[in-house]
Design brief:
Distance between the termini: 32 Å
Catalytic activity: D-fructose 6-phosphate + L-glutamine = D-glucosamine 6-phosphate + L-glutamate
Strand content: 15-25%
Helix content: 40-55%
Shape: globular
Strand order of the largest sheet: 2-1-3-4-5
Radius of gyration: 20 Å
Largest sheet: 5 strands, parallel
Number of helices: 13
Structural class: alpha/beta
Number of strands: 10
Keywords: Aminotransferase, Cytoplasm, Glutamine amidotransferase, Repeat, Transferase
Bound molecules: 5-amino-5-deoxy-1-O-phosphono-D-mannitol
Subcellular location: Cytoplasm
Protein name: Glutamine--fructose-6-phosphate aminotransferase [isomerizing]
GO molecular function: glutamine-fructose-6-phosphate transaminase (isomerizing) activity
Amino acid sequence: EKGGYDYFMLKEIAEQPKAVADTLLGRIDASGSLTLDEVRIPVAELREVDKVVIVACGTAFHAGLIAKYAIEHWTRIPCEVELASEFRYRDPILAARTLVVAISQSGETMDTLMALRHAREQGSKVLAICNTNGSTIPRESDAVLYTHAGPEVAVASTKAFLTQLVACYLVALYLGQVRGTKWGDEIDAVIRELAQIAGEVEQVLQTMEPVRELARSLADRNTVLFLGRHVGYPVALEGALKLKELAYMHAEGFAAGELKHGPIALIEEGVPVVVVVPSPRGRSVLHDKIVSNIQEIRARGARTIVIAEEGDEAVVPYADHLIRVPATPTLLQPLVATVPLQVFACELATARGNEVDQPRNLAKSVTVE
Ligand code: M6R
């Protein structure tokens, strides 16, 4: 059942290209227009949406953080992302024109379910992004967009995360399409890129041996830090979460711009810091800023592990370890940049003798609040 792999997690990491392709299948036609028939919220209502609120937990929350960038940039609709467990307790402002998106692999996470119930009681429409057919969250939502990752068994979420990202991009593009906002060359490029992205995830998977080797060399460490900017920030948070739950190491993700506001004090000789570098093309300001962040931490002794796109030469002098990912439009980069972090955490867990598929104290779906 593990298909020749030692762990379900390894199998599920390897299945990501297919999971991504399956989630896109039949949803974008040859002319680049989206058909999301399953989203049973009438187009007229989607045109009226004036705020999107995303609720989710854990890894699904990280997908939501990334979705915010895509939704706001492509549709210009304000978008908030909130941990489902915090949501209803702060008396959130919800209205009929608020679209609430609940993201959940299992469809049974109690915090997310309670958040969506609260949203519906306040008169908002809820769209679920879910991987489990017929589970409670989609049943209680107004509409559902299923991710087609197939069953995810390992407690640590991998392929579900990538497909949640794909579903979020589809929702953002669909909202843009029905509202006629921001439909231009950039969107066409994104749609073309999505058609190739499964192959690029596969390409990343083929180059992971040095990442595994690096992970093994860090097995006796206590701390790993992660930095990112823009969509690289939630990727950093996801890398840190994977490491906590699998390797039981102290791992923290920071927005690189926050370094000077505190976290840089943590940098001492030899501390491994993973940095997710955005594309130097497009928003090059972001790229330049992160290159100087890498210089700053390296000058203070950090051992820098840099994830950067192919052809980005500016990072080379400052990277103790360089992990290459294919060039993609900035907003899609999490689909390729997260994969090395999953492999890294899985290998570290193995090297530390931890149970990979069933980390201590954790359950696959958290059905209590
Ligand atoms: O089933 P869900 O997507 O609602 O689960 C949410 C979180 O419990 C889940 O993503 C958790 O954080 C994973 N163990 C992370 O790998």
